Amino acid sequence: MTINNAEPFFAWDVLSWLFVAMALAIVIVLTDLLLSKKNNQINTEASEKTSKIGSFFYFLVFLKFSKSEKYSHRPKVVQWSIEMFPVLLLVLVFRGFIFEPFRVPSNSMMPTLLTGDFIIVNKFDYGLRLPITNTKLVEFSSPNRGDVIVFRYPNYEKTPGYSGVDFIKRIVALPGDVISYKKDQLIVNGKSIEVKKIGPYIGVDSGKSMNNYRLTREIFDSSGHDILLNPKGHSKELVEITIPQGHYFVMGDNRSHSSDSRFWGFVPEDYIIGRAIGIWMHWDWNFNTMQFSRIGGFD
């Protein structure tokens, strides 16, 4: 499955509601300016003190035309709009272009990420994209094998309940790669990826069901990451395929408990939101436990 079959990227999320709130604030303030002669007078005086261009950009950021402009006499809804707008704008810029928090909802990325990990996603590492539509403006770098990425699930099957859902997986193959997966051995471009056995895994909280799974180190080039393998049998296999241009092949580190590209297809590059770079909090709501030791980076 490729992007031609994917569900549209846009879906209502936090960024969408932030944008709506900002648009509503602008409408409220502009409506008040048009209806109030007194406010129009303030607008005129402010424009006379500053350049038209300067006052215009100041308005775009603060919803008033100058720092000295008074608005305490205006309706409460207008005051709230003016006071909250810079905060909404700052949050939109931060979440839309720089970093965005996400929550890990399942065990599919164990042992790297656990259920209840709250992660930070770097949204500018691969390039600058517009919020909401994810349209690329500038490219800085390309995703690499081994990167843990957050992406909008393409939902090729148009499954109800999966519209606009974000997934987190690890990239194991790039555009143009030839890949297969047999008996829990990953083969990329005819080369078996090196693995090193570590021992039995000891799970915690929601991961206790993975106790005694085989903890294995999978090594891409000079870097590596840990994966979990079921000791009672192999996970879903994959016949040899070639990754189409503009798409990536992803898998979960918990190979027997991951819904990934082996099941539903490729991840379009346009659907990648960013690269996961660290854990800022861990709270497993199934067991009401917090682990401060989880905070930090990961492979």
Features:
299 residues, alpha+beta, Umud Fragment, subunit A, 2 domains, four-stranded antiparallel beta sheet, 24% helix
Task: Walk me through the structure.
There is one protein chain. The chain is α+β, with helices and mostly antiparallel strands and 299 residues long. It has 2 domains: 84 residues, no CATH class; 191 residues, Ribbon (Umud Fragment, subunit A). The strands form 4 sheets. Strands 1, 2, 5, 6, 14, 15, 16 and 17 form an 8-stranded antiparallel beta sheet that branches. A 4-stranded antiparallel beta sheet has the order 9-8-7-13, with no helix packed on it. Strand 16 and strand 17 form a beta hairpin. Helix 1 crosses helix 2 and helix 1 runs antiparallel to helix 4. The protein is elongated and about 75 Å long. It starts with 13 loop residues before the first helix and ends in a 9-residue tail after the last strand. The mean pLDDT is 92.
